[in-house]
Amino acid sequence: MAVLVVIGAGPRGTGLLERIAANAPELLGPGVELDVHLIDPHPPGGGRIWRNAQSPLLRMNSMAEDVTMFTDERTTMDGPVRPGPSLAEWAADPAAHPPYLPVEDPAVAGELRDLASTDFPTRRAQSGYLDWVLRRAIAELPENVRLFLHQDTVRELTGEPDGPQLVHLADSGTVLSADRVVLALGHLDSAPGPDTAEPRDFAERHGRTYQPPAFTADADLSGLAPGEHVVVRGLGLAFVDLVALLTEGRGGRFTPLPGGGLRYHPSGREPVLYAGSRRGVPYHAKTGYRLQGPPPPLPRYFGLDLELPDGHIEFKRDLWPAMAKEIGFAYYHELFHGHPERTALPWDAFLADYDRHPWHSPERAELVATAVPDPEDRLDLERLDRPLADLRVGSPAELQQHLRSHLRADLARRSDLRHSADLGAFYALLSLYGHLIHLLPAHPLTARSTAAELDGWWTGFFSFYASGPPGFRLEQLLALSDAGLLHFLGPDLRVDLDEERGTFRASSPALPGHHVHGTALVDAFLPRHDLSRTNDPLLRQLRRDGRIDEELLTDPDGHTYRSGLIRTDPDARILDPALDGHPHPGRTALGAPTTTRAPAAFARPRTDAPSFRQNDAVARRLLTELQKED
């Protein structure tokens, strides 16, 4: 009897179990029996982030048709494809997809009945889908594989590398003996970092409120009083969730205006928000249309055959030119095929010249200027990245007007089929993300480039362009701005601690000489996992015992960078400091807190998602090893 323990029963653990079910008939002999234990303190399937027990105001930032947990014909893997429905397809007729079990929550059941494929579902609806995916994976396990679910927390993992791995459960006191253990822990909390010490101490001294980075669904917002002036750092998805909970979540409501847009009707319990960030604008809204031409054939310039120098490389210098060219290719592929009337050259002629010219070359810029007459139809990545660069205004009212115009223009562009080329660029970003994960292990970045460019700029740019909220969220922000409950602070936000007044003083170079004072500060960012400060009891124990370590990169000049991520090898095996940094034969780690840097556990259909590829490879490796253990 072989035993596998998977710690974490959210989307990552569920996805791994689905791949075990798919591969076991081939890789486990008929006489081999396998027990799989799936452990999570939260409900299995959705796990913590996608659990049903959260506000119905919190939504996904993907349309229902763009969410799947299943491999398809475009997934590049060795295991068998087991097609399955997207969230939209499942919701359209749950009874048609066994094993059928009615959704218990009547509100979620009602949402699923009315869910359109282009709707942005609540996270509770996604919880229902993930619960069904898990039940289907369990039903598809062969007879020689048994599953045991434990709603519990793992407090300790012990055992010698060449012997059984002992998994100690906190609540039940059970100790499971396993041949292989997988940490599929998902998104984790860390204790507040040193960068939060000053605002925490300041708030305590002056009786103010400071909210450090947190998963918004779990944040305590009760300290933000009605009418209180609150400074908010960050305009991404955590900000959008924060706004929803502090407005509709406090009894306010939105109603449509006759000519379009929304009006907000306050409850009187809302604080007044003053929000800014480095870019100064919220993430781009998700597009509300589909490609008008055929999908761009990707990759073209950024694949595993990309020529790179030996040794450590730098992201912006060595990778970005090919990545930017790939984005441009997908953008113009859609423009030329979906809107040929707005181009001045045949596609084949344009592509032949585009192939020859480097991204940063004047020849490429001249080609685009000739082939695309309207400047608004040309891709400008620099302007996209910093839309408010060099902005200077003379008054707060002028700044608000500028930001409102920006949001309206973004909404119009993301809902207008004329601009479907933006969706082509989006597909390229998804492709780049997946190929980057496979390329980096063989071509490591310098410490400086990993910190500033990979984990810093690239992650931020990808999220800004490709992971924005649905369009109606920007309409809500505009309505709140009109109602005087949301004020934009501008780009390059600076927050100072005003000891004399006991306030958080916020300013932006876009409005010289102007400051806003708030009695509360919210850092509206998702917390970055840091192994040295992790709140997870298992990771704390493993680190204390010297059996797990965080990624530490060092440049030749001595510059270092600690990413906070768990060190794993390309096969996702944990690199064990007690084994001189070699992989531990019995321990694997997947997902967000690891150096694979592949956090997304579900994906768009037919995008060859890196998490699906990794799940399949890990499942096949584990089954092959467990076959020998039996």
Briefly characterize the structure.
Helix content is 34%, strand content 16%.
Describe this structure in words.
- The chain is α/β, with parallel strands linked by helices.
- The chain folds into three domains: 2-190 and 530-629, FAD/NAD(P)-binding domain (3-Layer(bba) Sandwich), CATH 3.50.50.60; 201-283 and 471-523, FAD/NAD(P)-binding domain (3-Layer(bba) Sandwich); 315-390 and 415-466, no CATH class.
- The protein has helices at residues 11-27, 87-92, 106-114, 123-139, 197-206, 237-246, 315-338, 347-356, 362-371, 381-385, 396-414, 421-439, 447-466, 471-482, 537-544, 610-629; strands spanning 2-7, 34-39, 145-150, 154-158, 165-169, 175-178, 180-183, 209-211, 229-233, 253-256, 262-265, 272-276, 486-490, 494-498, 503-507, 516-518, 520-523, 550-554, 560-566, 573-576, 582-589.
- Helix 7 (315-338) packs antiparallel against helix 12.
- The model has no long low-confidence stretch (mean pLDDT 95).
